[in-house]
Amino acid sequence: MALSDSVTTCLSQPVHYAICKLGFEKKEAYDINNILSGNGEVCWQAVTEHVCYLESDQSVDYFKSIRSLGPVCESVNLYFKSLTKEQFVIQYASWFHWTNCTEVFLEVFDVLQYAQATEVALGLMKLTSCLERALGDVYLLKGNDCPFLLRDLLASEQLADVFGQAVMNVLRVFIGSPHGLNLRNVLWHGFASPQEIPTKYCAMLLFLTAGLGQLLQTYLLQTKGVLVHRPYVIFISLEELDAFPDLNNEILSIAEELVKLSSFVLKIMSPFWMAALTAFKQSRYADSVILLLPQLEVGLRLLFTTSNKCPNRLLTAESSALYTTFDEMLAKHLDNEEVNQLPVVLEEPAMASDFLWDFLNHQEGPRIRDRLSHGEINLETFPREVANQIVGFAITILCRFSDEDMFSLKEHMVIKPLMNCASRYRSRFHPISRLKKQVLECMKSIHLWPELPTVPEEQVQKIGGLEGNAEADTLILMISEIISQLQHYMPQNCCSSDDPINSVLTERLLVGLCDTRICTLYSPRPVLEVVAILRRISAQCHQVSQQVIAGAGLRYTQWVNKTLRSRQRHNYRRMLNRL
């Protein structure tokens, strides 16, 4: 039996117990009216009474708090199921406005009515993402730099000042603390299967979000404050992300077959994969990517733990240790300094790692997982182009880890182009790749100089002092010497020995140089430091070129209109002579 079939859970025993059992131990029913006022507002004092504290230091006793809140969550779940959509909208929709994504929370209510496990997990991931973003906006009412990590945000004095420490402790039982249920992290990092997330916890977080809206409204009225929502991140230059061809239903149907057969997919997680492909077909692109990213992580974690002989790392670690995430799996060395064997297992290590680094990690890349999970992207307008790349990459990984008897599917006429694109993939957002892009953009700018408008040559008097410029002659000699030393690195037939300086600026040579494949994976620090310097130089060169173009255009217009003063005319002639 394949390991992917034999794994029954990715939750360690204590985490599995906390999420799946602890909140069900108290059997008595809880009266919803204890925490709900007549007008539907949350009675926070009654809720906070269920949070227990350690006698030793008065910190939250998460174990007892989860057990105590279990019946409350079930009561809230049953209460929401008793409401019609219209009743819920009338009663609660306005309390979600503070999140700036009311529709997401209304969708979660719809999900609760049917309690389909995969949809509940998806709803919870979207809810926690939007809630985190909204809490960050509230934080900025009182602070400057919003914490990046949810656990730090929930533990902040700023949010405690707005909502009260007792309220924040309730939230931390469910999300943000590795000692609590930690629902956001176990889902976003691919540890929980659909059946392991109780619906009642999703219902409770929906209820608490409405309650936070009520508290915030009171706070803003008292302080006369205004909540400002940070703008969403917008993906620009989508063509830079274009790695795989457009996916059609035929490809997606084959992908569904691969999900059933690929050893990359844990059997307990296959509903997430199928739901992701369905979401893509239905043009729900954010949903598709949200479902898929954690599954790429858990699939790679399976390969990582197998290839590095550390099977225990497949499970969530305890709160005292970090669990294995993308960052560690893509690193060159393990935390014990041994070489990471995952790249060896991947048939095209550079391709897979480059793609993942590009889309998830590089600072100038889209950083899709971070931005989705922290609520920085508008889910309703998530671009198909981005989802197409993530799904396309996932399909190639499914193919690579399918049995040999799946050869017919791998060689299928619609799958083959995907595999070819994968094998040719080169990093687009590594600093070296960005340097290449900068150099080519600078070259294009400089090549516009001959096309600049210029006055007739007979009107340009030769300016004395330009010929035989000692400084310029020295620079030319220096550049010639540098180029001669680099000659054997140049593509053939691209550089003239008669005029080495101008030939370096030829489009053919620079395109040829920038097309040279350079391994970007695990670049040493000295290389990155040199690249950073070269990027600053390139940026300055480009800026100078743009200034020349703008200045030449302006001076030409002034020349034609005869509005240049004597010194300006002299400087303009001087510039034309130099050009």
Automatic annotation (TrEMBL):
User: Pfam families in the record, alphabetically?
Assistant: DUF4209 (PF13910)
Domain spans labelled DUF4209: 131-211
- Matching InterPro entries: DUF4209, ERMARD
Q: Which residues form the signal peptide?
A: none
State the name under which the record lists this protein. EMARD protein
The uppermost taxa in this organism's lineage are: Eukaryota, Metazoa, Chordata, Craniata, Vertebrata
